[in-house]
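Escalation from tier 1.

The customer reports that the assembly of two entities below gives different structure tokens on two consecutive runs. Tier 1 could not reproduce it. I'm attaching the input and our single run for tier 2 to review.
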Amino acid sequence: MIYQRDTMAYDKPLPVIDNESRPFWDGCREGKLMLQHCAECGAWVFYPRVLCTACHSERLEWEEASGEGVIHSFTICHRPAGPAFAGETPYVVALIDLKEGPRMMSNIVGADPESVRIGQSVRVTFEKATEEVTLPKFKVIS
Amino acid sequence: MPEERTYLIERNGLTLKNELDASSPKFLRDRYAIAGVGETTYSRGSGRSTRALGTWAVRNAMRDAGMEPGDIDGMLSYSGNDSTFAPFIAGDLGIRLNFYMDVHGGGSSTEALVGIAMGVIEAGLCKTVAIFRAMNGYSEVRIGGTGARSAPPVTGDQLHSRAYGWQAAGQMFSQTFMRHMYDYGTTPEQVAMVKVAHSHHASNNPKALYPKRVTVEDVLNSRFIVKPLHLMDCCIESDNATAIVVTRAERARDCPRPLVLIRSVAGRVCKPRSDMHYQHGPISTVAGHYAKDILWPNAGLGPGEVDITGSYDAFTFTTLLQLEDYGFCKKGDGGGYVSDGTIQLGGKRPNNTSGGHLCEGYTHGMSMVIENVRQLRGEADDSCPAGQDGKRQHTFDYSEGGCRQVKDAEITANLGWAIPGTGSAMVLRKG
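Tier 1 run:
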């Protein structure tokens, strides 16, 4: 599912997409969480890189991940990261241990920030920011 | 794992069994000294350029070392593009440099640069190095990081963090504390005691920007910045410059101030993955866990022999994490260690006796080194009266406005912190 933010113009910092991460962002636009998977050693890699971080192989292939994970830790931001986030406070920045292994940063959305806990299961959801950029966010499912 | 190779290294009559084995008796132990320390006033609104501040601080450290411009021929500085480069400061002071380097970085730089200074002197590149940090952390580039620091485009590794509203140090680090509370049952009340202790120390420091003593309730009743961090869990932002002078022990013996020797240094030691949020394993373990294995064997002593600690208190909880991972208490027991009176003046092992970054001023780590040097000299600059010889007569009465000299301080440890995944450290001893 991809949802469109209801704000008129997206004024938060946007990723300047580079060649290493382009397939990741392309996936987000299609509602898929794409991770790199090593064809030689089987390691999952995030964020995107040019060589496998485990075995240095060049054979990193993009595969769709489950989109599921567990909250490793989080914080509730009462002060925004710059003026563009002022309307969002309090918002949750979380570290999510993805089912495939890598740890990923994102926001927990659709929940009262005070109800968020370490260990909760989460699933990816996608938030369209601009025509080029869609951000993966996470919702609590347990 | 491949078999570890062994190299025999001969130096100064000592044989080291392996260049990578930190337990070898290192030949630089006690061979270098911090001969001079100096700083500017800590302020919120210096009205001066970083060039002016840096010049003052280096001049003060040079005078403290009893040195002339011709005695110093090396210079190191660190910054995040918010300072003045070493050659400008040197030129303004009439110092001709044989070596200089300005590096990127904040916390954890001081101790690492001390190591570099020792290395380049040892390699014959220069003879004495001044290290400085000059910053208008309040009036120019706010260290809190939501102003000018949030402006650059989101590229590189930040592609996968800044878009989520993760920018300032508090936002970057607080997940680490949240996880520590989850793993070990640490409480906000316990870490608030770090601010309480440091505020008591600051109340005996005429230089401190925030000399008012606070209570646990004051901390917990201050507003949330990034939960679980309250306003008073966060360090202050200030304008200031700090400087130290590193030279050979033999040279330092000629200097007017009591000798302070560098026992051991660990510089910018990293966790297996130090890119913050994706780092290996539990994030409640920080770089000190690895740095301790270099720091203590090289120093030839352990945390139990340290009289004063200087933690990097960017936040209350960063003190707890460092003390714990450097082995001052058992992993997970940091909450008890920082709240049972140990770290307060008069306690078993006071921490940040100047008030540190939480209360004195924010200098990216160097002020805690300066404080420990003064402590080891027996020259804490508190309000105790001067005797007929001009030396301060310390009363060791730690009540408000009183003494902050630790009695018979022999060994100190500075624990630098850049991020949870990267840290530096240094052990000093009275010469």
